[in-house]
């Protein structure tokens, strides 16, 4: 472009012409446009996909509908069949079949909880919860064995199944005794399923709530700590290993299909509780738990600890509402304190002295594990198996439901592949636990389902995303996008304006040539 001509001003002076820049070559314009477009091409085709890939949150697919079905109780009917062996050796085969048929019909009619069903089977049945043993006698009677899972039935020797009145009377009596034998189990299951029984008293409901509060949460392994504390220099030794083997090991072995146990012991001298009164109240027992001078052993390997404290001192525990005193007190979800009065000259506590404390600890351990109170130990343990399997199944289902609702309510939360694998494993074992609910196999699968569901819910990488809101992302990207984005945007705007101006000039030139 040539320089503009000089202009003469009114005063006779001459205004110097402004030298304009030369016209930009077309190749330079195209080169500059290609440079700008290349930057944007790199950003759009390479930068944005790479940023999206590296910053996007991975969300593994979860079977949300299936998880919510389990949480709502729609995926499993929660049937706990209780098998009762009908060992009627004193009756003819036809009479035994008729009596079993009549009794089963009455049990089905009287059933007030669909989930709990008593099923009679003729003859000896392996893994039966209870065995019915018939003995002819003078009158009708029933005795629940205190050592075995058996119910002994006495019936008049002249009873015959061919007589409808005799058969109906005996069947009615059997159904009544069987329902009474499993009454506590039925009440606990109804409480777990939140399905109150008909005509259930408020006292029973309160007792079931206390049982839930008192018992410890299920764990496959518990750590038992036996502690001997004394307020002086003696006793300084005790036969705790022998006492555990003699008085508690048989019960722990019976519990082994349901729980595993580890045991350790400790002894501490000159340990004094915070309360010095001779008769302790219920409130005073908190000092045995919180006393800083008593370093109780912590949980080992993540297993919950059950504390059994034996304190040698001249103190007793007062019973609320009465003048009577006792030597032990069970503390819910913690353990037991047993006060053992010994003379000052006793330097060693032998296993015979430990007999009563160990028996007390054993009974309280069953209570802390949620074992029913009625019936023989084998019957109580079979009931505990069914209760624990149902409880674990419900807990695992609830955890899966919470995880499903969490993933829906927080769409920006990360769901790693390990979570999806854990959910799949939990659902698989829930299916197997539901199919075998109430038996040892059902307990095994329910235990794995609960463990997998909890691991998936508390996945560390997923939980961390809960505390990373969108405001944090903006604060991270703004310092980077400002210096990089502004030159790119301004350069693009300048090129667009230049392109529009060139099109306008070209159009005007074309119109002039046409004229």
Automatic annotation (TrEMBL):
Is Amino-acid biosynthesis among the key words of this record?
no
Pathway involvement of the protein, from the record: Glycolipid biosynthesis; glycosylphosphatidylinositol-anchor biosynthesis
Region (Disordered) residue spans: 1-26
Name one cellular component (GO) term: GPI-anchor transamidase complex
Keywords of the record, alphabetical order, are:
Endoplasmic reticulum, Glycoprotein, GPI-anchor biosynthesis, Membrane, Transmembrane, Transmembrane helix
Superkingdom of source = Eukaryota
Q: Could you provide one GO biological process annotation from this protein's UniProt record?
A: attachment of GPI anchor to protein
Q: How does it sit in the membrane?
A: Multi-pass membrane protein
UniProt-annotated location(s): Endoplasmic reticulum membrane
> Which coarse location class describes where this protein primarily resides?
endoplasmic reticulum
- Classification via InterPro entries: PtdIno-glycan_biosynth_class_S
Q: Which residues cross the membrane?
A: 34-53, 474-493
Q: Which family does it belong to?
A: Belongs to the PIGS family.
Identification of the protein by name: GPI transamidase component PIG-S
